[in-house]
């Protein structure tokens, strides 16, 4: 560092201290710009500690290991940092000595401004965060000197704004051309469709069955654009699935928008209720409930076999002071204490000691009026509500609702909270309004 630069920097630091009236540093504390934004400066052994302001003006406790021999101590966003310092190049021979700095707006946020022998303006300037550091500007400046975020900058005057251009003479608007006539949209394409023979039901189009079609025989018809088909069940039969273009769909509805061949299968309700044997394994600290035969024929601690006429729902019921810990056998993958079996199986349940969970919260569910069908709760064969009037029920935790059509009708869709469900089953777990719609399977006259 040259004698000239030492003199300049000394003047800057002296001017800063005089203006800010900073408290004296403790013995052993190095000089640096950090003193303007840090307080509670202490030196303990070779550790410098202080509370420094971050850029957002919040305080931060920070330390630095001394000595800082190759730089200056600065506050970088609330952290004491030893910043490497490279001294400026040697100054040219003196040309008049140190002299006062010119006026400018920079003097409001910079202290100790002077012009040194090398015609460089130096001052201690604060950035937007309030951190002060030495800034330099080569003179002369043919403009105004400003402090731009801690950096001395020569801002030249803006060129005068040129006068607005002379407006062009008015131009006559072009003649108005009537808008082109939009042609009518093209007619939807027509393509052939074929219904396969069906038994136990019929495939209906919107508005009824296609003219001249008999369910038991194949039939050709014309599709315009797109058409929705419905698989309608006859009495004693239920829809079992689609054949052909709609194969794979579970719902009794299918949309055709291209040439296709489609059919549907129906099965008798009796074929769905084949009897089978359920073997209950011995259980401790609980029981497995199902049809009434389970209560009269089975003892939880002993193995038991019961013949059931069709699919049956098993429930694992705990004794007081015990919790359900999982199924054994056929229902092992089921996590809930309820399991549906539809074939001959062996099944048991495990129970563990513990506090039972708190009872589920109850909430109201509004059943909207329904025509040609009814909404049933688990275990209900007949609704406690009048379907045409609707009613409000109380549900604890969650509950599965079933939309059951009357004879001669099929489920079409849910209304309200379950309207996005395609199947006639919906689980409710919060206060909602829900209803169901049903359509006739009878061919319109």
UniProtKB/TrEMBL annotation:
**The keyword Signal appears for this protein:** yes
The answer to whether keyword Ribonucleoprotein applies is no
- Signal peptide segment: 1-20
Report keywords, A-Z.
Signal
UniProt-listed InterPro entries: Bacterial_rp_domain, Cyanovirin-N, Cyanovirin-N_sf
| One Pfam family, short name | Flg_new_2
Query: Where would I find the Cyanovirin-N domain in this sequence?
Result: 33-154
What are the start and end residues of every segment in region (Disordered)? 156-191
Pro residues: compositionally biased ranges: 160-189
Q: What is this protein called?
A: Cyanovirin-N domain-containing protein
Specify the species: Usitatibacter palustris
């Amino acid at each position: 560092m040259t004698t000239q630069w030492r003199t300049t920097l000394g003047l800057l630091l002296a001017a800063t201290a005089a203006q800010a009236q900073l408290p004296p540093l403790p013995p052993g504390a190095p000089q640096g710009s950090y003193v303007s934004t840090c307080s509670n400066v202490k030196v303990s052994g070779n550790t410098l500690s202080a509370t420094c302001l971050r850029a957002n003006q919040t305080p931060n406790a920070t330390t630095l290991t001394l000595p800082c021999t190759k730089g200056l101590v600065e506050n970088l966003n609330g952290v004491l940092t030893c910043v490497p310092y490279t001294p400026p190049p040697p100054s040219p021979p003196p040309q008049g000595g140190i002299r006062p700095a010119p006026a400018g707006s920079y003097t409001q946020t910079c202290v100790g401004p002077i012009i040194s022998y090398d015609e460089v303006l130096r001052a201690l300037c604060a950035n937007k965060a309030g951190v002060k550091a030495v800034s330099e500007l080569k003179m002369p400046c043919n403009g105004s000197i400003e402090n731009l975020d801690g950096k001395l900058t020569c801002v030249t005057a803006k060129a005068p704004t040129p006068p607005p251009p002379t407006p062009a003479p008015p131009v006559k608007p072009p003649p108005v051309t009537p808008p082109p006539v939009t042609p009518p949209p093209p007619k939807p394409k027509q393509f052939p469709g074929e219904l396969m023979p069906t038994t136990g039901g019929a495939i209906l189009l919107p508005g009824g069955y296609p003219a001249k079609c008999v369910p038991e025989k194949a039939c050709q018809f014309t599709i315009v654009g797109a058409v929705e088909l419905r698989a309608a069940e006859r009495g004693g039969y239920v829809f079992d699935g689609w054949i052909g273009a709609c194969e794979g769909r579970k719902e009794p509805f299918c949309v055709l928008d291209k040439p296709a061949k489609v059919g549907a299968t129906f099965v008798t309700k009796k074929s769905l209720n084949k009897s089978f044997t359920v073997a209950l394994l011995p259980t401790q600290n609980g029981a497995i409930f199902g049809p009434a035969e389970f209560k009269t024929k089975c003892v939880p601690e002993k193995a038991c076999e019961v013949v059931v006429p069709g699919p049956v729902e098993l429930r694992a019921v705990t004794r007081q002071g015990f919790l359900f810990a999982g199924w054994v056998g056929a229902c092992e993958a089921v996590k809930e204490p309820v399991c549906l079996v539809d074939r001959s199986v062996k099944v048991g349940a495990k129970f563990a000691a513990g506090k039972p969970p708190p009872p589920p919260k109850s909430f109201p569910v509004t059943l909207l009026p329904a025509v040609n069908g009814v909404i049933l709760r688990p275990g209900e064969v007949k609704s406690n509500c009048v379907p045409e009037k609707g009613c409000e029920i109380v549900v604890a935790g969650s509950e599965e609702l079933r939309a059951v059509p009357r004879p001669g009708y099929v489920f079409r869709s849910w209304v309200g909270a379950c309207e996005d469900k395609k199947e006639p089953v919906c689980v409710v777990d919060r206060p909602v309004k829900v209803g169901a719609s049903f359509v006739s399977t009878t061919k319109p006259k």
